[in-house]
Amino acid sequence: MYLIGLTGNIATGKSTVCHILEQLGARVIDADLVAHAVLQRGSPGWHSVVDAFGYDILHYDGTVDRRKLGAVVFGDASKLQTLERITHPAVGAELALLVRDAAVAPNSADAIVVIEAVKLYEAGLHEYLDALWVVTAPPDEQKRRLTQERGLSESEADARLRAQPPLDEKLKRATVVIDNGGSIEETRVQVMRAFIQINPERASDKTALLMHWLRLAPQAEPPRAATPPETPLPTIPAPPLITEPEWTVRRARPTDARMLSELLAQIEGKSEPIGRAEMLERQGKFGYWIVSAGERTVALAAWQAENLAAIVRELWAASQDQAARAFPLLLQAIEAEANALTCEVVAIVVPERAAHLADVAARVGGYAPTSVDQLHKLWRSVIEPLLTGQETLYTKQLREIVTKPI
Questions:
Q1: pLDDT per residue over 92-142, tens digit each?
Q2: pTM, whole model, 2 decimals?
């Protein structure tokens, strides 16, 4: 697998270059997408960012408002360093997992994989790459893109440009430099010329990268005895005391990604586990709660919050009996988070395959069957687009209705 690190400062057009590379057959890993997942509401990264910068950097639904956060950190170098200390280790570990998955995929020997990241060089990742591509654009063009295409004010754009790391060292070490200050056709020609020069057979081993980012270390074998120990006479143990494992409910952690990808694929009737990139995107969109009996996962729920409504989008349990016991734990956890976000209602909106489980959840959780016409207009604006005619809909009001989102 040939691994390219693609970097460049803000608004130089890295995404444009990545899109061209995808059209040429490369696979792109977007570090910004990974950062979204690392800061998903309720995650350890989210809590650390809120502790560091306060609740003012959140949307009303509790998700990070990246524009507000940017306004705070891009005007203060020390705050930007604080944010990077929180996010970079987690993002780096997720990137390494994505690289690992790509390295063991079918036909990986001929694969060309691109990691797009602004701070790729600063994080030291360039040491483990087969090539370093740097995208550039004139400062005036960067500012124009920030203000006209991304809607930033001139002061916001200037703050972000001032906070960007210098390009000199990157350009010295670059394998390829793409000038993206002109037309898309000019950029495409540069990318294609560089792409056809790639020889996957020159790819390096990626073990060092994985050990660096995941802190992997080979496990030493336990010492072997020179001679086998004398075999003791067999004893008949007392019959073990059989106890049922404790049931616990908790928010899914990043380390649960593989388990979730396999379980969700099973729930959705897919033959292969969900890819890590898609799983990261889902974890950035939904909050996942799981109920475990010892080491075994027995139930799961996924939810999101928008416009004063918390919406349960997935329900699963290993059996109907376990659902009746597990769903109160899941719903209580979701309702507690929904209350913290000042949501007025929790709605269960699940596909037809989970209708029988929604019935159980409604019964044990005190939810009422609801039609679209019965929904408050603010809730309806969020819930109705999710209904295609096959979903089950139950609701439970948490607080008094207000006239507009908070």
A1: 778 888 888 888 888 888 899 999 988 888 777 778 899 999 999 999 999
A2: 0.59
Which CATH superfamily does the domain covering 2-214 fall into? P-loop containing nucleotide triphosphate hydrolases (3.40.50.300)
Sign of CA dihedral 217, 218, 222, 224: negative
What backbone phi and psi angles, to 5 degrees, belong to 30? Answer: -95, 110
Residues whose CB is less than 8 angstroms from the CB of residue 360 and which lie 6 or more positions away in sequence, other chains included: 317, 320, 323, 324, 327
Helices vs strands, H then E, count in the chain:
15, 12
* Residue 51: count of CB within 10 angstroms of its CB: 9
Question: What tokens appear for 56 in the block?
Answer: 């003012």
Cβ contact 92:211 at 8 Å: no
Q: What does each C-alpha distance from 172 to 197, 218, 385 come to in angstroms?
A: 20, 35, 51
pLDDT tens-digit map of 380-398 = 888 999 988 888 899 999 8
CATH topology of domain 247-397: Aminopeptidase (3.40.630)
CA-to-CA distance for 89 and 370, rounded, in angstroms?
45
Q: How far apart are CA 191 and CA 20, in angstroms?
A: 7
Q: Where are the domains of the chain?
A: 2-214, 247-397
Provide the 8-state DSSP code for 116.
Answer: E
Contact between 163 and 80 (Cβ < 8 Å): yes
User: How far apart (Å, rounded) are the C-alpha atoms in residues 283 and 40?
Assistant: 7
- Distance from C-alpha of 215 to C-alpha of 351, rounded to nearest angstrom: 40
| Cα 57 from Cα 66, distance rounded (Å) | 8
CA distance 73 to 52: 11
